[in-house]
Design brief:
Rossmann fold; 23% strand; Hypothetical Protein Ta0175, Chain: A, domain 2; alpha/beta; four-stranded antiparallel sheet; 34% helix; 249 residues; binds magnesium ion
Amino acid sequence: MDMAPITHRILLACDLDDTVVGDTEGERRFTQAVKRARDAGVLVLAYVTGRYLASGQRLVAEHDLPEPDWWGCDSGATVYRVADGGTLDLTGELSHGPWDAGIVRSRLAGHPALVPQDFDNLRRVSYIVTNVEPRAVVREVKGALAGMEVDVALVKDNCLDVLPAGLDKGVAVAFIAEHEGIPAGDVLVAGDSENDVPMLTGGFGRSVLVGNAEAYVKEALHDKGVIVATTSHGTAVAGALESFISERI
Ligand SMILES: [Mg+2]
């Protein structure tokens, strides 16, 4: 039987920690689903993570996950295209509002619940949150940074990122889709936590929260057209990928 010609490709943009990564069986199913979609020539894969690039690459190697075609790192503040065995940094093509990391750091200096993280990234200021009520800390941080054009988001329950306004995971996914010539309707996004919200509500073709997502994120998104998977981690992403492709191609 002749194969039908491939009419288009889809972009899977997914978070890593607690989305793809989290249980071994899910990672295996995810890897298989990606391989099948790649063998069919229909998939562009982007990992969109709160990690910086080297940390994301280390995680992928440690868990033997497929190499992506794109990276969105630092919660969307940086983007890289994977090509010829290396990565091409396209971060400079992302535009954002006024930004002074030094002012952010000085306004938050001495906060008792914030431990500064020393990432070598000029567009992101990160902290470990040591308070049992991380969302209360987010409110305090937003208060301390009032008047600045910044976005504040929790990554998991104990990491806090401050980024320039205009940079987030949703912007990174839109940038990648545009570079690939893939319409927003053919983009599938998957995530689990607060810094995934901008891509989950970014107007893409389908948005999936893995079943193990943070409860407050599920609560915040239940009426926003986001699908909450009945399965968890990579199993949920694999299932979403296979149904998304079968409906389109
Ligand atoms: Mg995550």
